[in-house]
C-alpha cells in the first residue's frame, strides 16, 4: 500500500509562514481576489460552467506519481467505459496544487472533478470556482463526522472521498518497557506521567513527537480541545481562553522537560518513530503503510498501536473531490469515486486513502487489517472538524495560529500573550 502527502504543507507560497502585518494584509487581498473573480465571470456564489454529458476531467497530485498515477488512470478508464464518458487527466505537484487550481479556474482552464485537501476548500469556495454537490450527496451513506466536512457557509462543495482522523500512534514495545498502558493516557496528567516514565526508561528516545515546526502546528488543536477550548465558537474566535493557554503552556512544559522536540515536521516525526527514536507521534492511519518502509525493524507493524489521546477528540483528515462544472459526466465521476466499493478499494490499495463511505470501512480490505480495525473503533469515531476550515482562507488562519504557537514555544512570548494576539488576528481573518 503506497501513501503520499498525508500532511505536507511546506512549499506552497500560499502556505508559507508570513509576518503578522503581511498576513493581515491578506484580508484586503482576499476581497480584491473575489472582485477579480467576479470580473472574469466567476461569481463568489460559484460559476455557471455547464460541463458535458460525455466528457470530464480529473485532477489530482496522485496522477503525477509514477507508480500510483497509472493505476488511478486505469480506474478512471474503467469508469469511462462503463458510462460511455471520456475522462482526461490533469496533475500538479502537491506543493503547488492549490495555487495552480485557483489560477486555472480563474482563467476557466480547469473543469470536471478535482481531488483536494480540505484545508483548501474554503479558499476555492470563496474564489467562486466550485459547484455545489448538495444534489448528488446522500448523507445517509456517511458518518456524522464525514457529514460535517466538505461544507463551507452552509453549502456542500466537497464530495467525500478519503477520510479519517489524525490521532496518536504508539510503539507498544517502547511503551511496555516503560510500564505505560497505551489505553491509559486519557488525561493530560496521565499523559505527562507516561512521557516522563518513557524518558526515564530510555533518555535517547523522544517520548512524544507532535509537529512543532511553524509550518505544521495543527497538532496542538486537539490539545486545546482537551483543555476545554473550542478555538472557534460560531463567528467568534475563543483563543486566549483558559483552555488554549493551558494547552500551549502544557506543550511548553513538555518542550522544556525534553519530552517533545522543537521544530519538527511530520516527515521528521515519522522518521523518528520508524527508527525507534519516538514512542508516540501524531499521524493519520496511513502511517501503517508508511512507517514500515522507513524502519529497520521488520516487526514494526506489529508494534504500532492507536493511542487514545487526552480528551478523546482528534482532528479530521479529509481529502474530498470537488466540481468545477455541473455536467452529468463530472457529477457521475464524483459519485463513483465517493461511493463505489471497487473504486474505494483501488484508492486504498494504490495510495493508502481510507474511504469516507461508512459501509466501505466494514469491507474486508479494511476490516481485516488489525491496525485499521482498531483505529476505526477507537480514533475515527472521535474525529472532529478543524475549526479553522470555516475561515475564508483556512490556510491563512492556520499559518497565523502556527506563528503564535511557535512564538510561545520559543519563549518569545508568553502563552497568554500569544493566544491574545492570535485571537485578534484570526477574528479579523474570520470576518474576511
Number of strands: 13
* CATH T-level fold name of the largest domain: D-Maltodextrin-Binding Protein, domain 2
Name of the level-1 CATH class of the largest domain: Alpha Beta
What's the architecture of the largest domain, going by CATH? Answer: 3-Layer(aba) Sandwich
Description:
The protein is an alpha/beta fold. It has 2 domains: 209 residues, D-Maltodextrin-Binding Protein, domain 2; 194 residues, 3-Layer(aba) Sandwich (D-Maltodextrin-Binding Protein, domain 2). 43% of the residues lie in helices and 14% in strands. Strands 1, 2, 3, 6, 7, 10, 11, 12 and 13 form a 9-stranded mixed sheet that branches. Strands 4-5 form a two-stranded antiparallel sheet. Strands 8-9 form a two-stranded antiparallel ribbon. A hairpin with a 2-residue loop joins strand 8 and strand 9. Helix 2 runs antiparallel to helix 14, helix 10 packs across helix 11 and helix 17 runs antiparallel to helix 18. It is globular, with a radius of gyration of 21 Å.
